[in-house]
Specification:
- By secondary structure, the protein is mainly α.
- It has one domain.
- The chain is 75% helix and 0% strand.
- The protein contains 16 helices and no strands.
- The protein is globular and about 50 Å long.
- The C terminus is likely disordered.
Length: 330
């Protein structure tokens, strides 16, 4: 690959991480004006329309799905869009964007642990060190440096919601490993985004979306558009391009930029303080995620991995990406 093309790939991946970091700030802003389900619906109403258009352009049409594929898409939509985004917007109504981003940065850690248990994926000593570092840092951030808080008062409702994000995204990612054996990542994300938007509509109406929507200020609409277009559509497309250009292992390293950019953007645009506990806990989280995501050295594969059904399925299963979180995701 030419150096100029490689530079553009790295630039797009870096900007994607910044866009996903910005979703925490946008979510914090929209939470001042809209309820959680309403914010989530508007985000994915915008995103799903754009993603379906991108799918038609790239795939040539909207692919037809089988019954079993629809079951997986619905599960993806309900976990990665419906549940994740309710917890995301509810949590950001309560706690700071920077703290939320550091907690959600542990998504890859939990996925790695469950993948090792469910799919027998290898956990090297370096990955285990990374897992311990990341979880320890997250605990330090949640307790604001006072570990006795866990034993005296537990965690607050805001932190509980953000941990709900982690659980929802882990579920989405593990289901995605199966769904993307049969469907491209673009189709999986576009369809699950549309399913999630449809599911979010009724709860959003119950919250008062129809009566509230004419009164949302321009600042709120800017947040919804940012979340839908930059935090979801452009972020997904650029990340997917990065995976195709340099592979999922190298592209995945850029996820480490997300919590850093979120903390800095929250400081710049929201005036959130850079507390000592946030910095002290955030550094081991970033280092831990980096170590846990390093590609493992070659070694013997499990029997199932030695005999993939076909090369296309294997390539697609390698492309499970955190496109909807704002994510890592966000």
């Amino acid at each position: 690959m030419k150096s100029s093309n490689l530079f553009m790939v790295y630039l797009k991946l870096s900007m994607t991480a910044v866009f996903w970091g910005g979703t925490f700030i946008a979510g914090r802003i929209t939470g001042q004006y809209a309820e959680p389900f309403s914010s989530a619906f508007l985000r994915f109403a915008i995103a799903s329309v754009c993603l379906l258009c991108v799918t038609i352009k790239i795939e040539g049409k909207l692919p037809k799905l089988t019954g079993s594929q629809w079951v997986k898409i619905i599960a993806l939509g309900m976990s990665g869009v419906f549940a994740y985004n309710f917890f995301f917007f509810k949590g950001l109504q309560i706690i700071e964007a920077g703290r939320a981003s550091v907690i959600i940065a542990n998504n890859p850690i939990i996925i790695a642990l469950l993948s090792a248990y469910l799919f027998k994926e290898r956990l090297t000593p370096v990955k285990l060190i990374g897992i311990v570092l990341s979880i320890s840092g997250a605990i330090f951030v949640v307790t604001r440096g006072d570990l006795q808080t866990l034993f005296h008062s537990g965690i607050g409702p805001g932190e509980a919601c953000i941990f709900g994000c982690v659980a929802s995204w882990v579920t989405y990612s593990l289901i995605g490993k199966s769904a993307m054996n049969e469907l491209s990542p673009l189709v999986s994300v576009a369809y699950s985004a549309a399913v999630g938007a449809v599911a979010l509509f009724i709860p959003a109406c119950i919250e008062g979306l129809i009566t509230d929507i004419p009164h949302y200020p321009a600042r709120a609409w800017a947040g919804f558009i940012y979340l839908g277009v930059f935090g979801t559509v452009i972020g997904f497309v650029w990340y997917y391009q990065g995976i195709r250009s340099i592979g999922p292992a190298r592209a995945g390293q850029f996820i480490n930029i997300v919590p850093v950019s979120a903390v800095l953007l929250a400081f710049i645009f929201l005036g959130e303080p850079l507390t000592l506990s946030l910095i002290q806990g955030g550094i081991p989280v970033v280092i831990g995620v980096y170590l846990a995501n390093r590609p493992a050295p070659p070694g013997p594969l499990p029997f199932a991995a030695q005999q993939p059904r076909n090369s296309t399925a294997r390539k697609r299963s390698d492309s499970v990406i955190p496109a909807i979180s704002g994510r890592q995701s966000p």
